[in-house]
Amino acid sequence: MAARSVILGIDLGTTSVKAALVESAPGDPSGFLVLASCARAARAEAAAQSAAAGPQGREQDVSRIIQALNECLAALPQQLLQEVCGIGVSGQMHGVMFWKTDQGCEWTEGGASPVFEPRAVSHLVTWQDGRCSSEFLASLPRPESHLSVASGFGCATIFWLSKNSPEFLKSYDAVGTIHDYVVAMLCGLPRSLMCDQNAASWGYFNTQSQSWNLEILRTSGFPIHLLPDIAEAGSLAGRTSRAWFGVPKGTRVGVALGDLQASVYSCMAQRTDAVLNISTSVQLATSMPPGFQPAQTPDPTAPVTYFPYFDRTYLAVAASLNGGNVLAAFVHMLVQWMADLGLEVEEPTVYSCMIQAAAQQRDTCLTITPTVWGERHLPDQLASVTRISSSDLSLGHVTRALCRGIVQNLHSMLPFQQLKEWGVERVIGSGSALSRNEVLKQEVQRAFPFPVSFGQDVDAAVGAALVMLRRNLNQKES
Ligand SMILES: Nc1ncnc2c1ncn2[C@@H]1O[C@H](COP(=O)(O)OP(=O)(O)O)[C@@H](O)[C@H]1O
Ligand SMILES: O=C(CO)[C@@H](O)[C@H](O)[C@H](O)[C@H](O)COP(=O)(O)O
């Protein structure tokens, strides 16, 4: 019997790590089967390593992210892992972490299979980081890119560190996103490799020339020697340097992909589909026609931006900073209030009760603008609640209004009418904040009256695997 083509897909998200085992299935309408999947909360939030980052700093402990990854791999069927012939990796874009070449991890051979643990690495400064004030961003050089630079973008964070913590940078000689790091460790890469999807999310990257704005950065004192080499999205990064949780040594590994692009790749079946992802954040994306090129002068006030996809095509994306993280903040607030009142309640219980209560509350006049983190195009628009009446104060009312506010905020960035004009005929939902929340699903269907279907809650991991399967492993043995 021919060996199975089993591909391992990984998504290193902001809240959780997801892994999926995917197999080519020509007989299936989708062409593939998800054989197994796993998700593990990373719980990686950590205090900023640089005190100067202040309360707006948002960093994650890389060891906890890798621990969640290891837990996912350990939970997948060993037999299937031994049949893996390719690995696709995706993750939270924009963020940046640092490591020392050849010292970024330590492989331990003690257990059933070698595993790597991070060594000589920094925290991950994530896309939610707010240390770069508007004044600081205004002091930076204008990028030669169609995307403006925002706080939490890798190059902005590196500029900030070079100006506020220069000693910190002297300890490292490699940088990348968390998913670039994992690929580099799995393959033992001498230098970090990055595809245009992630490079564009850092700022100061020209997607037309596929190159960093080296001259602009160099003349501004940016440590350009740190910048990763660029590779095409969907290309190979290398092969695993060791066996890993049963995955054979020498397994091909793709260059790491953006989580959004990987989710779109797994959900978008027709060019007329729009993909609405609600995870920690929210994105509404649809594909632009081949040959489309975004205007080269970025407009920081534009709610829709254009993300590189595959083969020099672009996605039109409304990317909100306020998605599942707003619900998580509300849940955290409730748990804290109940603790202050001497009551101990677990977060999953609160999620379950509030979603059930809102499902019974089909409508509300309470109106919530949920933007506790502002938006990149409206940084000063923080959250607000209006139309509060004594009859609309139940948990069901507030949760319904919160879910509606998250979806309406996205709709204000990319309205149903605009999608219709672009030829969109269907919306595919993705992301586990959406898949676990019937009320959010109802509000999506209310705001976007298209036929709506919902993907799986490991869409980016499946997408990363499919890219590997369709762009590398269906080709002849190289
Ligand atoms: N028990 C739960 N029930 C419903 N929603 C949840 C639950 N736990 C977390 N969530 C939501 O899921 C979101 C995280 O989704 P996830 O897909 O893990 O994010 P990411 O891909 O960004 O890591 C949280 O921000 C929260 O809103
Ligand atoms: O902020 C944008 C785009 O600018 C998002 O697409 C961003 O890439 C994602 O929210 C981050 O990658 C985080 O994704 P997730 O952890 O919310 O899945």
TrEMBL record:
Acts as a modulator of macrophage activation through control of glucose metabolism. It is found in: Cytoplasm. It catalyses: sedoheptulose + ATP = D-sedoheptulose 7-phosphate + ADP + H(+). This is Sedoheptulokinase. Pfam families: FGGY_N. Its main location: cytoplasm. Keywords: ATP-binding, Cytoplasm, Kinase, Nucleotide-binding, Transferase. It comes from Lynx pardinus (Iberian lynx). GO terms for cellular component: cytosol. One of its GO terms (biological process) is pentose-phosphate shunt. Its EC number is 2.7.1.14. Residues 6-264 form the Carbohydrate kinase FGGY N-terminal domain. The keyword Transferase applies. The keyword Cytoplasm applies. One of its GO terms (molecular function) is ATP binding. It comes from the Eukaryota. Belongs to the FGGY kinase family.
